Amino acid sequence: MENTGFEEDIEEKSKIFTIKTQVGKEQNTADLINSRADKSKIKIPSILVTPELRGYIFVESYDKERIKDMIKTVSYARNMLEGDTPLEQIEHFLIPASAVSKIAEGDIVEMVAGPFRGETAKVTHIDDAKEEITVELFESVVPIPITVRGEQVRVVKRKEEETKEEEA
Q: Deepest in the core among 61, 86, 110, 167, taking most CB within 10 A?
């Protein structure tokens, strides 16, 4: 049977390496690493740049030493951290956060989009599945429940803050 090289890929397991970069230049570093890898035929299945973690990127590769040598020529890359990073440690970066995950019933929100932009309201219901919230506007004469997308509001005051003020 002819060796296509595919069998080697199955046995050889990729690892995730953490590269320290200049803060604010994470995307540029990732782009440079990607283009250098293409030119030098280094296999990099993925590169993760996450806005929550400034100054670091994650590179998936098979050859640690070749990656180490390559990043020496990348202007914004500082160095590579020792060892590899388990996928479990960066999995939470791969799952997008829900628009309503940080909003709770009773929170005071400001409408930042839509026809009620600029109005303040109280959250009365949250639908996690649809990423929608139901609010009651403070300025309306009759409290009418309005359902809006989670990204159309900004939390002004949390319910916990309100109860702490009442206790004081």
A: 61
pLDDT tens per residue, range 30-58: 999 999 988 888 899 999 998 888 999 99
The token duo for 160 is: 């916990």
Q: Which of 17-21, 77-81, 88-92 has the lowest mean pLDDT?
A: 88-92
pTM: 0.58
Q: How far apart are CA 125 and CA 61, in angstroms?
A: 45
List, in sequence order, the alpha helices (H) in 45-133: 64-71, 87-94
- What is the extent of the structural domain holding 34? 9-94
Provide the domain count of the chain.
2
Question: Which residues are 135's β-sheet partners?
Answer: 123, 146
